[in-house]
Amino acid sequence: MEIRNIQKTGDMHYLYLPTSWCREHKIGPKSKVSIEQDSDGSMTISPQLTEKKPKHLKFSIAEDDEEVIHKLVVACYINPASSFEINFEKEMDFTKLLNQKRLISLESVEIDKKQITCSGAISIADPESLLKTMAKKIKNMIVVMQKNYDKELIERYEDEIDRSKMLIDKSIISSLTFERITKLKTIDLYYISLISKDLERTVDHLICVSNKETEFLGMVYDVIESLQLIIENTNSLNHKTALQFIKKTAKIKNFEVKDIKSYDKERIRLSLTTIAEVITDWAITREIEK
């Protein structure tokens, strides 16, 4: 941290910007900067970003493996492209492609026999809000699993949670490239990305848990509820909050993997344990920033 003296001329207070910072961001006599005041009393000065035109992506590929194509489409979707077009050498059975997880829920994506296109892809500015949504939907899904186990509704929740995770990826990638669409710090984006990934993994195994596992589902619900409260108050996150969350997660004991059922429960436990570690890392980062 560098300390600089405030200068005063008449009623005006000012300070000199670091020469190295100005040089790095090409700040000159006619440049403009943005100033934002935060709730904690701090002020952020940012260089005015040069507006760049979103890029149109166009690919021609000789591929008929649905899983490979699916990964390419999702990658194009979550990156900050204005639109994309993927052309195939031969016609393909697009119904098989639509069966790929998450693909059918992508807005603006059109699939034809020899072409996949997307125009006007959406842009998400608040990944933290999406993370809150993920936690809420997981809680709702667990309630449905405990009460009436409506399989169709549970699958719908899983799709929405997967979609939230993908939109978080899209928002973070956009923020870390030439666009800056969120006010969150880069380190916050990093932690949000890690948590959302393990939340999605949790749900992938959670949908396989029987509704008879009431005690286990209840413990998972409690952990997700605690996580939701943390996400809603990240500004007050500290080591004490993190330690409480670790203890909450530790109530779910190790499972000896004997079959698919025990494997799913152990994978859920491991994912929640990883989230607790990320929360602790984030809490210490917050302590350092104070």
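(ticket continues) Second input and output from the same batch:
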Amino acid sequence: MKTAQLTLMAAFIAIGVIGATFFWFPTGIAHAFPVQHAISIVSAVLLGPLPAVIIAFGIGLIRNLLGLGTLLAFPGGMIGAILAGLLYRWQPKTASAITGEIIGTGIFGSLLSIPIARLLMGQSVGMLAFAPGFIISSLSGSLLALLVLPKLKHLETRLFND
């Protein structure tokens, strides 16, 4: 089972990096990367909170190393992933994971991005500067997750129960 879980985690990281390369759009001062948010939701549902955070960190790290992202990928992605996983664990419904992703990324992630932008990136931004973009990004990722997750839940049963 561990091999299947690690393989799925690696695949999600690869899909997140590739998806961020080809599928993004501007949202004010930030960019929306819906694939990363969809993967946070899907991995939270299929694998749990800790693997979801590891996947979000892996996607953010590789994107930054390749010059495809900024440091803002870490707070939004990781907080959204862990909150999605925790809320899904508390109440195992896709809506719980989506709510966790949107609140974690859109509110907590955007607020945590302000000191990161100021201290590490030299950008002076207002209190809610990132919130609209992060919310739009996580909402679009949530819609993508709603389309993909029903197919992957069936796959999960076959992967982890054989």
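Agent notes: Strands lie at 25-27, 30-32. The domain at 32-161 is CATH 1.10.1760 (Arp2/3 complex 21 kDa subunit ARPC3). Closing as not reproducible unless the customer responds.
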